[in-house]
Sequence to fold (206 residues):
Amino acid sequence: MDQDLNSDAERPADARRRTRTAELGSFFAVAVSFLALALSAYQAHQMSEQTRLMQSQARAGIWPYLAIGYSLSVEGEKQGYIWQIDNDGVGPARIESVTMTLDGKPVRSWREIFRAFYGEAAVAATYSKVYGKVLPPNTNRETTIEAVHITDPEQARAFYAAQDRLDMTICYCSVYDDCWIAHRQNPNVHAVASCDRSGVQFEENM
Fold:
């Protein structure tokens, strides 16, 4: 009889222990699940950061940088005035848009500019296309675009004296379609979402 009573008393204690064990097991299972989820989220975040860093490094490794300048020489093959565009970056530049202003007003060609500077006089000059070109970086070889080369010394000096009346704007993009705008009268370029060709485009020698 006493044994039966003891057995009956032990059963609730055993049940409580089993219940606590089951609850602890469930708690640890949930904790492990949350830990695994957190670890998975952390790993995904780290992979995303690594991918972003690799993409940034790839973009930086082919970043083009256009500079719009000039040269003026009194002798040699480059005699005269040259309006030139250089890619001083480390990747190719795809030129998407070119605009030019004279005294703040848009112009479409060098011939318009020559009429403003020289009247109806003939100008000894050669032209090179700018818009639509892909300009490689000049890290290994000369890749300057000579937009216009005025070979007559007197006309070259006159153009040089008046060049601050002009401003050229070039919008260009990298192979990743990151785009920038370069200005002749500003050595810094600034990033844009895309190149806008709605303005009056400069058609070089029309």
Strands lie at 66-73, 80-87, 93-102, 105-107, 125-127, 134-135, 145-150, 166-173, 179-183, 186-192. The longest helix spans residues 2-61. The chain has two domains: 1-61, 66-192. The chain is about 40% helix and 30% strand.
